[in-house]
Amino acid sequence: MSSGADKRSGADKRSGTVAPAVVAADVRVSLGGARILDGVDLTVAAGEWVTIIGPNGAGKSTLLRAVGGLLPASGSISLFGTPSAKLGRRERARVVATVAQSPVIPNGMAVFDYVLLGRTPYMPPLGRESAADLAATREVLDRLDLTRFADRALSTLSGGERQRVFLARALAQGATLLLLDEPTNALDIGHQQEVLELVDQLRHDHGLTVLATMHELSIAGEYADRMVLLAGGRVVAAGPPRAVLTEELLATHYRARVRVVDGAHGPLVVPVRGPVGQQSRECPSR
Ligand SMILES: Nc1ncnc2c1ncn2[C@@H]1O[C@H](COP(=O)(O)OP(=O)(O)OP(=O)(O)O)[C@@H](O)[C@H]1O
């Protein structure tokens, strides 16, 4: 598997610095006649884990899709120092892999064949997979403890097992930037931790960069180096989890009544029943 350093631009190789994995400036996206992203700036350093949070409809998935080149956006987006617009489809697929919120599962497809699809950018057009593609697929299945499922239809796996297969396909792609849209969606708390620990381990082992969206705020804050709070298609806060997961910001942008307490690995967000907007009077945080 290639490392983040392999994706350096020529100038970066010469200067010895690593270009940021993502530099997005003034990104605007309109869908169905409505402005969904309205001037978003986002930088993700190589090797960093950044999680985008925000209320339903804030534009999180849209931002992820724009970064992944899956929909047209104005403004500028660079991946590892190369303008996104200059990356062809196959070239982009070797740099960035997206795990969608609900990936389409081809009917009856076996786990092995699904993960092998991740090797498509390395196969000649209309050509067959090589021995190297098959070996890479076996290696990823083994790495993610999925070998025993190789011949099973993907549709028969549990939610947690399936999530691991989606990650496996992204890893087989050999991309160093992982875009994860709600990777813990529909997983129980144990499987949420298992999947995020796995992503973090892979990040360290393979020098990956992670840009994710998540709704589970406490667990999101435990894994992210930085968080970006999106609301109404704009970035309204960004920084380390402690700077973003505050009672004030969550009350303002989620209309949520929460208490935020210090945890060993980041702030813990506890929902508190009661009228929105009265947390400072009835539920002091400090
Ligand atoms: N093709 C489309 N046409 C029109 N509007 C769209 C289209 N796709 C998305 N939208 C709208 O864009 C807004 C942002 O959607 P997006 O999926 O990015 O939000 P999100 O923050 O990921 O939400 P959630 O937390 O609910 O997953 C929503 O209001 C959605 O209805």
UniProtKB/TrEMBL annotation:
SUPFAM superfamilies: P-loop containing nucleoside triphosphate hydrolases (SSF52540). Residues 22-257 form the ABC transporter domain. PROSITE patterns: ABC_TRANSPORTER_1, ABC_TRANSPORTER_2. GO terms for molecular function: ATP binding. It comes from the Bacteria. SMART domains: AAA. InterPro entries: AAA+_ATPase (IPR003593), ABC_transporter-like_ATP-bd (IPR003439), ABC_transporter-like_CS (IPR017871), P-loop_NTPase (IPR027417). Keywords: ATP-binding, Nucleotide-binding, Translocase, Transport. PANTHER family: HEMIN IMPORT ATP-BINDING PROTEIN HMUV (PTHR42794). This is ABC transporter ATP-binding protein. It comes from Micromonospora sonneratiae. The lineage of its organism: Bacteria, Bacillati, Actinomycetota, Actinomycetes, Micromonosporales.
